[in-house]
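Structure first, sequence second, as always.
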């Protein structure tokens, strides 16, 4: 799982998945030890003035006239 991590990654954990409760602490520890900051999704996504590229990544919209 961690081999695909990169800055800006959104990692989804299913609440009802069989092994999530026991795996989550070690995954979060790995992420923090490798310089990642864990935040709620609401702090990552843009809710206004954004665009989405072909891969589904969100970016702030360019100011008008640019």
């Amino acid at each position: 799982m961690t081999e695909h991590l990169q800055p800006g990654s959104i990692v989804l954990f299913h609440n009802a998945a069989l092994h999530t409760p026991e795996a989550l602490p070690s995954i979060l520890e790995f992420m923090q030890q490798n310089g990642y900051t864990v935040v709620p999704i609401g702090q990552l996504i843009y809710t206004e003035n954004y665009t989405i590229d072909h891969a589904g990544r969100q970016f702030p919209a360019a100011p008008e006239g640019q």
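Margin note: The first strand starts at residue 50 and ends at 52.
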